[in-house]
What does this fold into?
Amino acid sequence: MHAMVLNKTGSPLQWTELPDRHPGPGEVRVRVTACGVCRTDLHVVDGELAHPQVPIIPGHEVVGRIDALGTGVLGLALGERVGIPWLGHTCGVCRYCRQHQENLCDHPLFTGYTRDGGFATALIADAAYVFALGEEGSDASLAPLLCAGLIGWRALLIGGEGKKLGLYGFGAAAHIVAQVAAWQGKSVFAFTRPTDIATQAFARQMGAIWAGDSDQPAPESLDVAIIFAPDGALVPTALRAVRKGGRVVCAGIHMSEIPAFAYDLLWGERSLVSVANLTRQDGVDFLRLAAQIGVVTRTTLYPLTQANQALEDLRKGAFEGAAVLVPEVIQATPDTGIEHVH
Ligand SMILES: [Zn+2]
Ligand SMILES: [Zn+2]
It folds into this structure.
């Protein structure tokens, strides 16, 4: 197998040939056909998350087909198309696991962070944390659902019932959440980097009734605001935008420091919460709903070998929606030995 490996945080991923592993008990091996690029991958590469572990293969929006089954795997078949999310394993015994909060497990493994992920031609996954994807939709179009979609969905749930929803940062997650929220009958207000009119137009296409600059006041008082952009300065901004009793949800795994703000912004029973990881139930619920609604994703494809470029483009905001890595097919032929075919 081949992978884009992070050997040292803060340095580019390196194209590396690795031995094919056999799945252990309860594991499956998946041939990767698409892997989304998430902002969390950038935080992993930049060394911004606690306890960085290297070498590691990033990538946690993985779509592929099972090509080897470990012993004891039930309910999954060779050749089946599956998705592998960020939540790679939980302990099953800590207080959180026992209380249906496995997203907060004390001893978890996360795909592409503490166990090898999908910036690769193959990976080994714990079969209990793999979602069957069926055959509807292309591999690349489904990949962003596995984190951007899932975390967005969980943030939407935590945000509660309010009808007027603000989304701060309109990237991969927001473009999926906007469609779900619109389907639920919510009014979506999209806040982007100032003067980013291209993304604002994209947000309107994806169901937002209003789109504007994040440094401008909201046109109406919001019930809920979800912050996807990793910018702590947006916390007081979003608190200012929500009504009394309103809620601000921070959906990213990492955020720059939140500037000090007057207590007045929180007063009035406004609440400020974060969303961490996902549960398997979130995945089951969201993937079913996404299929039912007919969620569409805007993807920009990159060959797996260009993962560094995809990460840099994500950093710069060079594309709308999500970047997806597609492994080059490596074929051995009798005449030419190894040849690379896009
Ligand atoms: Zn646990
Ligand atoms: Zn992610």
The first helix runs from residue 39 to 46. The mean pLDDT is 94. The domain at 149-274 is CATH 3.40.50.720 (Rossmann fold). The radius of gyration is 20 Å.
